[in-house]
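Title: Comparing notes on inverse folding

I've been comparing how different people in this forum approach sequence design from structure. To keep things fair, I'm posting one structure and asking everyone to reply with a full sequence. Here's the target:
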């Protein structure tokens, strides 16, 4: 914060807004009367103090962060504490300058500064000498130990998403694994994408009597999940885009023989396909032949760059209606099994637990309870990010908040400093999470992806995460045991 701004803030805090406004009016009148050789306007414009004061006044009257839509007393207290620590007003605790929040700085500027300091790390070995020039090749070559893609190589991702949403499809096959209907699409350049079809129109909520595993996924949640991961500065989700598939051309004509055999015209005259899977594989129909869905860029070939598949998530939910998982019934689960588990150093040291917490925050924002396993690129060992894919169970209910999704944060009472800084910034404004996500998603060909009430819910959820963190700090009476600066962002 600039020093005139600090002075303005200090005076305002001491004597109150009204008094300062009154004094300012008197000062303006005096300037006007005493010296009329220059206009009052010019004189006022010169004053740094005046400018700082007006900026603060504008923010006081119309905050636009998440807080403007949903404020929580405890989140406000955390915001104040955060800023006080940044200003050096709290003994023995400090926040590195990189994470200080300027009032007027917009979120994207703040995020970009943060990201520019992120470690790059080594790239995937299997692609180092790849000379292919497709957008997929360029993307694979940029995957590093610390991120799936680099935001400053934006053109790669933009070009890639354009290709995924427009390139001719030359083959479509059923994709096994998991419980939802999926197709593996191959494009005319041999590259691949994972297609998830629309199961619900945008306005349909998850039925209240459904468990999370009863529900279909939403293609819009896959697209929004990618954008949300991106605007939160994680860059750990495979680029995903909306696409309208032609059931005749892309599925019937270019389908594998298995797909062709399972394509039919419904009594309503629509071209449909069916497949048998574990849970949700009923019939997918075009209207009459067009079908919208999401396509995620397929990750690198697994033989070249293996991923640790099927590592059980410590907060995995149970596929049962009547039994609870251990973590659901034992609030000491994190302390006992993860944080202080001497038999399992995976969670007691390194970045893993904080990555699980980042993912829990992402899942709380979307309402996605569907985390059974986690995956990462094996060649980077434990010092690498978790891949944020499979976001399709999100955005089912805007009115409710998935508090069980937040269990890792509530129980472990930890958060990465960089993640906290982003959330506090979004809470403070001038931008809110709903707004930055809306802006990001306008680039998708199927925009609008989310209806407004889902965007508004995100602003509420930012406040709830901060409230949870504030409770942790109060409960443990220690900032530094809760807010961890491990240097990752
Ligand atoms: N973009 C991708 N590139 C490569 N592999 C992927 C991609 N997306 C998903 N996968 C792989 O396919 C598996 C199944 O995908 P996904 O989890 O999205 O399916 P699902 O049917 O929703 O599964 P579930 O029933 O567990 O929710 C993932 O665990 C992952 O290993
Ligand atoms: Mn899924």
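Reply #1:
Here's my take.
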């Amino acid at each position: 914060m600039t020093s005139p701004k600090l002075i303005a803030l200090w005076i305002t805090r001491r004597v109150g807004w009204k008094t300062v406004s009154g004094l300012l009016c008197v000062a303006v009148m005096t300037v006007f009367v005493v010296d009329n050789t220059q206009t009052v306007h010019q004189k006022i414009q010169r004053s740094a103090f005046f400018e700082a004061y007006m900026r603060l006044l504008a923010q006081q009257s119309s905050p636009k962060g998440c807080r403007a839509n949903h404020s929580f007393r405890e989140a406000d207290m955390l915001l104040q504490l955060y800023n006080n620590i940044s200003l050096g007003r709290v003994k023995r605790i400090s926040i590195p300058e990189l994470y200080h929040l300027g009032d007027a700085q917009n979120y994207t500027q703040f995020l970009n500064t943060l990201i520019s300091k992120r470690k790059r790390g080594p790239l995937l070995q299997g692609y180092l000498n790849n000379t292919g020039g497709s957008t997929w090749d360029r993307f694979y070559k940029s995957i590093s130990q610390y991120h799936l893609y680099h935001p400053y190589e934006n053109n790669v991702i933009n070009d890639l998403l354009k290709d995924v949403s427009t390139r001719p499809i030359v083959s479509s096959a059923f994709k096994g694994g998991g419980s939802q209907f999926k197709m593996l699409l191959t494009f005319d350049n041999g590259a691949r994408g994972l297609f998830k079809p629309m199961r619900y129109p945008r306005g349909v909520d998850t039925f209240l009597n459904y468990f999370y595993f009863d529900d279909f996924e939403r293609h819009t949640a896959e697209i929004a999940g990618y954008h949300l991961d991106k605007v939160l500065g994680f860059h750990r989700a495979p680029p995903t885009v909306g696409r309208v598939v032609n059931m005749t051309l892309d599925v019937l004509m270019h389908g594998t023989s298995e797909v062709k055999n399972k394509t039919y015209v419904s009594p309503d005259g629509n071209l449909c396909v069916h497949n048998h899977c574990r849970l949700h594989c009923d019939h997918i129909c075009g209207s009459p032949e067009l079908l919208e869905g999401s396509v995620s860029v397929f990750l690198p070939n697994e033989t070249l760059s293996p991923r640790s598949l099927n590592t059980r998530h410590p907060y995995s939910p149970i596929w049962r209606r009547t039994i609870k998982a251990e973590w659901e019934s034992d609030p000491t689960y994190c302390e006992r099994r993860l944080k202080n588990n001497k038999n399992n150093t995976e969670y007691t040291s390194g970045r893993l637990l904080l990555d699980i917490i980042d993912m829990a925050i992402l899942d709380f924002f979307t309402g996605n309870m569907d985390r059974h396993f986690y995956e990462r690129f094996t060649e980077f060992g434990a010092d690498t990010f978790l891949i944020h894919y499979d976001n399709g169970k999100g955005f089912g209910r805007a009115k409710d908040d998935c508090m069980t999704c937040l269990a890792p944060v509530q129980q472990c009472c930890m958060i990465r400093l960089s993640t906290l800084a982003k959330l506090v910034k979004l809470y403070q404004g001038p931008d809110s999470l709903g707004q930055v996500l809306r802006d990001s998603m306008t680039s998708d060909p199927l925009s609008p992806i989310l209806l407004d009430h889902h965007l508004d819910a995100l602003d509420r959820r930012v406040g709830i995460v901060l409230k949870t963190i504030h409770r942790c700090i109060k409960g443990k009476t220690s900032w530094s045991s809760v807010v961890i600066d491990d240097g990752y962002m």
